[in-house]
Every structure is written in C-alpha cells, then in structure tokens.
Design goal:
Elements: E1 2-6, H1 11-22, E2 26-30, H2 37-43, E3 48-51, H3 65-85, E4 90-94, E5 107-108, H4 119-133, E6 141-147, E7 150-151, H5 157-167, E8 184-185, H6 186-198, E9 205-209, H7 217-227, H8 239-249, H9 258-265, E10 269-270, H10 273-279, H11 288-298
Parallel strand pairs: 1-2, 1-3, 3-4, 4-6, 5-10, 6-9, 7-8
Length: 302
C-alpha cells in the first residue's frame, strides 16, 4: 500500500512513516512549501493522503492570526480540492480536539457543538467545515481526525515541563484538585490510522482519537516519579488558599493567577468510543500508562 504524507518532517509524521514502513507500506512525503506538490498529488499512485502538515498551537500566543488560517485552513482546502480531482481513495485531515473546545465538561464526543476560542482551533474548524461541505466522488472516503495531545519518545512538549518539576523534586502544590485528562500515544495514533486504511467498511466522518483511559495530573506525577525512582512530592494545600493566591496573581506578577490555575487543574477527557465501535475493537494496543512511561523514559537521554 502506498500512502502520501504531508508534514512528514514533524514528530508525528516521522513516527508514522517509520510505523508504516515497518509494516511493509510505502510512504511518499510531500512538502506543501514546494509548489510542485500539486503535480505530485495528481500523479501519485497512493491509496491515501494523510494530511499532518499544519501550524501548531502556539501556547505563548505570539503567532500572527493570519498565519494559522493560511496554513491550517487555506492549504488544507487547496490540498483537499486536488484530492477530489485525483485517483487517491482516502483523505485524512489531522485536525484537533481544539477545533471543538478549549475546555470540556464531561467527555468530549464527535457531535459536540464546536466553540473554539483560539485562532489555532478556529482555523482547524474552518478547514473541517469546508471538507464536510464538499460532495465526495463515488469510491472516495474522507476522515477528519481530532486527536488529543499526542506524545511519544522524541516529543517533549508540556509533558517535559512537568517531568522537570518532578525530576528536580519541586513540590506540586495543586494536588487537592482532582482533574482528568486524555492523552494519545503516537503508537495508538499510528495503529488507528492504519486500521482505518485497511478496513474498507469504515465510513467517512469525524473521529476523536485518544487512549482508552484518562489520568489525573496527580496520577501523571506519580507515574513520572516512579519512572525516576523518586517519591512523588504532592502537596494537598487547601483549595481556598490556592484560589486566594491566584486572585493575588491577577493583580501582581507571581507564578500563579486565576487563568493559569484553571489551565493547570481543568479536566479534558476525550471519548474514543466512536472509532473503536467503527473498527469493532475493545481496546487499543498501548495502555495509557505504558505509553506515558515510554515517553517519560525517553527524557532521560534527551
């Protein structure tokens, strides 16, 4: 099976190329920065296009708004239009749960009403809307994939920040807050994509990707500490006290304020029930905790 990948130089793209190659699939990487990509797609003998390229969420909020829409929306629209006129069977748009919501009450499901607040999420959602509005030619399939945070060896991100807190023995003062968050092992991501490619009965549509179980921040700190052979340093300070400190931080510059407290303690649980039902599977191959341990262990040599 031949598969074309955009964004192949990124963390997820490199992992997917290796995964598919190891399973006897041939991959073709194209760069949307090179104007020749249009002809490459038209001539390709690939079964599918996996569109990973995009502008990632900038948590420092320094990126220009227009750049998100140029890359995440406009380039996706152009690529999808070329796909519609090509002989390629499947199109995978790797969107994001952030195209739906920045905060979640309960479990996030595919039919939740989208209300993104960031330019990143809005640009992804606009690309989704365009794709969903187009009529698919007979024999083609379209998948909008909304993964939660993808992690794996070689990818640092926010997990590495928390890892350094644990490694240096810095106390976690927010242990009184009981939140739940979903994660996605890059191995589970690759497994789901390949399973969809091989199963011709999977219907076009929107699918959330996440590991089977969620973890609290406290669980994650304990897991990191165990991996480091350390004792987790969890401080269960009264919430009332933390809230007062956060309000002070709204006025004077200290490490915590109300917005930062919310982001550190909120829950974000993503349901993967739809894709598992579609593929008729009960569990994903990589356990949530095992996947996170593999990622954390990779920090030792980074």
């Amino acid at each position: 099976m031949h598969v074309t990948i955009t964004g192949g130089s990124g963390f997820v793209g490199k992992n997917m190329e290796t995964y598919l190659s190891n399973r006897s699939h041939e991959t073709i990487k194209i760069s949307l920065r090179d104007d020749s990509w249009r002809e490459s797609v038209k001539r390709t003998k690939s079964l599918a296009i996996i569109h990973l390229a995009g502008k990632a969420h900038d948590t420092s909020n320094t990126s220009a708004s227009a750049e998100y829409f140029k890359v995440n929306r406009d380039l996706t629209i152009e690529l999808f239009d070329v796909f519609l006129r090509s002989d390629v069977r499947d199109f995978f748009f790797i969107s994001s749960v952030k195209a739906v919501a920045d905060t979640v009450v309960g479990d996030l499901v595919e039919d939740a009403k989208p209300f993104p607040r960031t330019d990143y999420g809005k640009s992804k959602l606009e690309a989704e809307k365009y794709i969903l509005a187009q009529k698919l030619p007979r024999g083609k399939r379209m998948f909008i994939i909304r993964p939660c945070m993808i992690h794996g060896p070689g990818n640092k991100g926010n997990l590495n920040l928390l890892y350094n807190v644990v490694r240096m023995g810095i106390p976690w003062p927010l242990a009184s807050y009981d939140n739940r968050r979903s994660f996605l092992s890059v191995d589970n991501f690759n497994y789901l994509i390949e399973s969809m490619l091989l199963n011709v009965n999977v219907k076009s549509g929107i699918y959330n990707f996440s590991d089977d179980h969620s973890l609290s921040t406290n669980d994650l700190i304990v897991l990191m500490a165990d991996t480091l052979n350390k004792k987790a340093n969890l401080w269960h300070l009264p919430k009332a006290f933390i809230n007062i400190v956060a309000k002070i931080g709204d006025v004077i510059p200290i490490p915590i304020n109300s917005e930062r407290l919310r982001k550190l303690t909120e829950s974000y649980v993503v349901s993967n029930d739809k894709i598992k039902a579609e593929l008729k599977i009960d569990t994903l191959p990589v356990n949530c905790k095992d996947g996170l341990k593999n990622t954390v262990q990779s920090f030792f040599i980074s």
